[in-house]
Amino acid sequence: MAIAETSRSSHELPLSTADSSRNASTAKKLTLVPLIFLIYFEVAGGPYGEEPAVQAAGPLLAILGFLIFPFIWSVPEALITAELSTAFPGNGGFVIWAHRAFGSFVGSIMGSLKFLSGVINVASFPVLCVSYLDKLFPVLESGWPRNVCIFASTVILSFLNYTGLAIVGYVAVVLGLVSLSPFLVMSAMAIPKIKPHRWGSLGNKKRDWNLYFNTLFWNLNFWDNVSTLAGEVDNPQKTFPLALLIAVIFTCVAYLIPLFAVTGAVSVDQSNWETGFHAEAAEMIAGKWLKIWIEIGAVLSSIGLFEAQLSSSAYQLEGMAELGFLPKFFGVRSKWFNTPWVGILISALMSLGLSYMNFTDIISAANFLYTLGMFLEFASFIWLRRKLPELKRPYRVPLNFTGLVIMCVVPSGFLILIIVFATKIVYLVTGLMTLGAIGWYFLINYFREKKIFEFNEVNDDLDNVNGEHPKVDDHES
User: Phi and psi dihedrals of 328, rounded to 5?
Assistant: First the structure.
């Protein structure tokens, strides 16, 4: 990703009130290294959770999936995020992009779909955390101890998020390095035991394509989530493209090294490759001590994943309030920590309620909703290039218009696969949520017309190149 020379941008999104403007100007901004690790935890958080790809399709297809899928999906999504986050560097991210491209209805639907997929994704991390802990403490396998553990972890981690994004960013750096360290040790110790022919195995079970594609999608997705807090980043026009480039490389390597090591060094029945198997493999390779280390790392990784995803969801709600898609109170910030506490509270409560779903259904529902949002995102990206060629883009994807269309069409084909292989319960859940998103748009308009809540004005003057925010009246080209 080449970084274009950046001048002072006129696209900064001002906050909706004088108080929030003062708070934003004095808030500590995210710098490059914390942003890299926040992106990393938005997407991956380590190789925890990649194991079902082997269970679904065998070692060879799992390895090929994590080798090829980043080029089909991760790189295009990261490129789009880099271009549009630097062109529209404000909280709200993809909601701003859809609104600028197609108007308030599409912007609202995009916001609802992505927010719902985000909070469902947040709900998966306490479940993933407990799935590792129950291997150390069997009492957490089921019943009230498991439920209490999920509840307590959600409450405690939500409060940490409330203390500030800068703190969350630096915590992510520490969590990322510590949680990856046992995998580096395991991979090094596995080298003498590796038998390369095992990498070519297709497994001995019927392939579960639904599990396979959803595992790849869930592990290498959500690159654009970080766009919702672009307004909190120091010098986003330069920082975003570089952070995304490093995060893509870092994430892919973090998945592949342990996958090659374990599939080459350990020979077990394919059905054993369920979520958490890396810890079992560590014991086979090095002993109980490494298994415990990886399980501790899994807990730390789940904390980082939860914090990053919850931040994105909360700042998205704040951005939607600034844009006028939600009542102003959704954008209220804490006097103590300058964080959008209403957004954090709503996101945490929704994720807590969803965390008691089946883990596979959580992943599938999050993927399906995100898929619908990504169709809108690709369309917004292409339409903005066609419609606003003169828009200042501090970073610009170095392709002509035809190349951009191809770049979006290829991953769209994968999105169709996610839809085709979804289960009936996922169709039901996502169908109801999509209808709810449409109904929410009209309900919000009713609230606005009846003046039940206070709103910012929604600006649908889509020909105003620099009119990302309803308060902006800047026609500089």
Answer: -55, -30
